[in-house]
């Protein structure tokens, strides 16, 4: 609609995309050129920002679907084969709980955007939760990506949680 100027921010659209994929769906953006064949400048900026996020994190979207685990309070989960993708919108206080997983199921964890390894936490902070596993995101309370920091969790063969 030529008169519609209620543009959704790229951060909202990234989160809506992740939500759709985490529920087994996909997202169609209704973006198109004006009568002169030009895309509105605002649309170009929003699409470019989404594209930059997808360049770093698209692996957590393309070919993915529901994780088969409950939605964590800090974000969403997607899955492709033996890889879970933990989409973190809000950092936890202390180590990040990986609900529904056991330590022996996890082969490795890395930040998808830069490939840096994320260790499992051994902090005393969660010693009261021996049946839970936590990721150590480091000392900074600020996430590397303020929109959606994605962790790739590679699972051991045969350790893939059942689809729900």
Q: Roughly how many Å apart are the termini?
A: 39 Å
Output the number of helix runs. 2
Strand content: 15-25%
Widest beta sheet: strand line-up: 1-2-3-7-5
Helices and strands, in order, run as: HHEEEEEEE
What's the overall geometry?
elongated
The residue-averaged pLDDT reads: 92
Radius of gyration: 18 Å
Describe the main β-sheet briefly: 5 strands, antiparallel
**Uncertain segments of ≥5 residues (pLDDT<50)?**
none
Structural class: alpha+beta
Q: Say how many strands there are.
A: 7
What's this, in brief?
With 164 residues, the chain is α+β, with helices and mostly antiparallel strands.
Describe the protein in words.
The protein is of the alpha+beta class and 164 residues long. The strands form two sheets. It has a five-stranded antiparallel β-sheet with strand order 1-2-3-7-5. Helices cover 18% and strands 19% of the residues. The protein is elongated. It has helices at 10-22, 41-57, and strands at residues 65-66, 75-80, 83-88, 96-97, 106-111, 134-135, 149-155. The mean pLDDT is 92. The protein contains two helices and seven strands; from the N terminus they run H-H-E-E-E-E-E-E-E.
Descriptive terms for the model:
164 residues, alpha+beta, two-stranded antiparallel ribbon, 2 helices, 19% strand
């Amino acid at each position: 609609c030529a008169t519609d100027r209620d543009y959704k921010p790229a951060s909202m659209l990234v989160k809506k995309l992740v939500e759709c994929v985490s529920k087994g769906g996909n997202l169609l953006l209704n973006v198109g050129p004006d009568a002169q064949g030009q895309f509105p400048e605002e649309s170009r900026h929003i699409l470019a920002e989404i594209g930059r996020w997808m360049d770093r994190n698209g692996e957590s979207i393309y070919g993915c679907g529901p994780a088969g685990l409950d939605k964590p309070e800090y974000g969403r989960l997607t899955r492709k084969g033996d890889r879970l993708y933990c989409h973190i919108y809000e950092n936890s206080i202390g180590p990040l709980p990986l609900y529904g997983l056991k330590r022996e199921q996890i082969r490795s964890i890395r930040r998808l955007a830069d490939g840096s390894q994320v260790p499992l936490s051994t902090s005393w902070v969660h010693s009261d939760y021996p049946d839970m596993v936590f990721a150590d995101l480091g000392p900074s309370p600020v996430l590397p990506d303020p929109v959606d920091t994605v962790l790739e969790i590679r699972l051991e063969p045969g350790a893939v949680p059942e689809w729900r």
